[in-house]
Amino acid sequence: MPDAYGFTRYGGPETQAFLELPKPVPGPGELLIAVYAAGVNPVDWKVRAGMHRDFLHLGLPAVLGREAAGVVEEVGEGVTGFSVGDPVFGSSAAGRGGYARFAVLTADRTAPKPAAVSFTDAAALPIAAGTGYDAVGLLGAAPGETLLILGVGGGVGVAAAQIAYEAGVTVVGTAAAAKREFVTSLGATAVPYDSGLVAEELKAALPQGPDAILDLVGGDALDGVAALIRPGCRILTVADPGTAARFGARPLTRNSSPRTLTELARRVAAGLLDPRVHRVFPFEEAEAALREVESGHAWGKVVLEMRRA
User: Fold this and answer.
1) What is the pLDDT of residue 240?
2) How many CA atoms lie within 13 A of 305 on its CB side?
3) CA 31/CA 104 separation, integer angstroms
4) Tens-digit pLDDT profile for residues 167-176
């Protein structure tokens, strides 16, 4: 079997390939894990396309993937709290990737995996669920308030909706009409963005306007709900800085701390959060897994499985 899946140059899907690479070695502050599962995220194809080249410097060929779950194989210098054989999950170290048989994680962005949480669910938590958790916290969504999530059907929106709903927040989310039942199952009121009646349905669902907005779509999504935005509405967005500035929005950032990861795993183990892993692809089908995410139509999370527990 190949060692990893990545890309040989910046560009489209044609640059992707299985790679034969030596087993990586963890540096100071890092962990080497035998990967059981790796999360697949939109950021992965954006890295391959070169959208992050200005701040993420990679040697090519590069391994894809930013999150993984597995068992510790080796502990890097200066790392404490982890031992060989520990089941863990976390974020890939800078310049490394998770679509691999063995991957290097950053120790301060890694947490123990509880026995009650599967490797596939754990691999879905660091990026999307972590972003959703941090976003709800940054927005300060409080019980009795209303939160509008633009693009609720993806991995970040799925986690944010459940976390906000569990906190007593009324959640309204936009998604494709085909996802209405799926979105409702998250505790949110679904508004199809492709129905032609999105403005009317949003006004009916949020007659007083939302207290907070989480924009996971970017582009002109905020323009489409501008009529609902009232003074004092808090906004987080993945949109470009210019769009964010026009609406007084904050950029969506996160900290990836072990404390956040531990809390997410606790919620999953307690049945309070379901990362909604919609599809699990075997490692050999990594191309198909990334293609599904790149299409923009994936439901919840897509995960690659390298080993079975």
Assistant:
1) 74
2) 12
3) 5
4) 999 999 998 8
Q: Report the alpha-carbon distance of residue 103 to residue 79 in Å, rounded.
A: 16
The more confident residue out of 32 and 297 is: 32
Which residues in 25-58 are b (16+ Cβ under 10 Å) and which e?
ebeeebbbbbbbbbbbbbbbbebbbeeeeeeeeb
Order of strands, sheet of 170-175, starting from the edge strand that comes earlier in the sequence? 188-192, 170-175, 146-150, 212-215, 234-237, 250-251
pLDDT at 309: 77
Instruction: Tell me the β-bridge partners of 71.
Output: 34, 87
Mean pLDDT score of the chain, rounded to an integer? 92
**First-to-last CA distance in the chain?**
18
> Under DSSP, is residue 236 helix (H, G, I), strand (E, B) or coil?
strand
For residue 227, give the DSSP letter.
G
For residue 150, give both structure tokens. Answer: 């633009």
What SS3 state is found at 234? strand
Section 216-243 average pLDDT: 87
Q: What is the pLDDT of residue 197?
A: 67
Residue 237 burial (10 A CB sphere; 0-12, 13-18, 19+) = buried
How far is CA 124 from each of CA 45, 77, 93, 218, 264, rounded to the nearest angstrom? 16, 27, 17, 22, 10
Q: Identify whether the C-beta of residue 91 lies closer than 8 Å to the C-beta of residue 69.
A: no
| Dist. CA 68–CA 90, nearest whole Å | 6
Q: Tokens 């035998």 — which residue?
A: 34
Q: What's this model's pTM, rounded to 2 decimal places?
A: 0.91
Structure token digits, residue 7: 């890309």
Residue 294 pLDDT more than 70?
A: yes
Q: In the structure encoding, which two tokens stand for residue 110, read together?
A: 């890694």
